């Protein structure tokens, strides 16, 4: 689905926001153990944008978790409510900005195209309706 531009995402308390000039390249859910622990849930629903589509970013605190498997990973979280709003992962997604789908003003405007790392999906969690599903990263 197409959504009016710019696209905006905000944290739970609305102190942090990001605006993007174009539609996401894709939306997916990652069930890896890192995403599960980072969100405290079944994984992470993500909208993937080109870095050059970022129009504005406000209020975020940058975290540099020094992850051996993901060098250069930087997360941008709210210093008040601690929501994980957006991040970069130059090894896996060079030139891209990942945005938490749940932080978008209208997350239902976008369809999940794939799920990844299904090998880590909890057995009680039903498969999410997506065009493709991968046991690991494609």
Placed side by side, the strands forming the largest sheet appear as 6-7-8-9-4-3-10-11
Tell me the structural class: mainly beta
Tell me the total number of β-strands. 11
Q: Cα-atom Rg, whole angstroms? A: 14 Å
Low-confidence stretches: none
Shape: globular
Query: Could you describe the largest sheet, including whether it forms a barrel?
Result: 8 strands, mixed
Give the fraction of residues assigned to helices. under 10%
What is this structure's SSE topology?
Elements lengths: L6 E4 L6 E4 L5 E5 L2 H7 L4 E7 L3 E5 L2 E3 L10 E4 L6 E5 L7 E5 L13 E3 L15 E2 L5
Parallel strand pairs: 3-10, 10-11
Antiparallel strand pairs: 1-2, 2-5, 3-4, 4-9, 6-7, 7-8, 8-9
Brief overview:
With 138 residues, this protein is mainly beta. 5% of the residues lie in helices and 34% in strands.
Written description of the protein model:
The structure is a single chain. The chain has one helix at 33-39; strands at residues 7-10, 17-20, 26-30, 44-50, 54-58, 61-63, 74-77, 84-88, 96-100, 114-116, 132-133. It is mainly beta. Strands 6-7-8-9-4-3-10-11 form an 8-stranded mixed beta sheet. Strands 1-2-5 form a 3-stranded antiparallel beta sheet, with no helix packed on it. Strand 8 and strand 9 (96-100) form a beta hairpin. The model has no long low-confidence stretch (mean pLDDT 91).
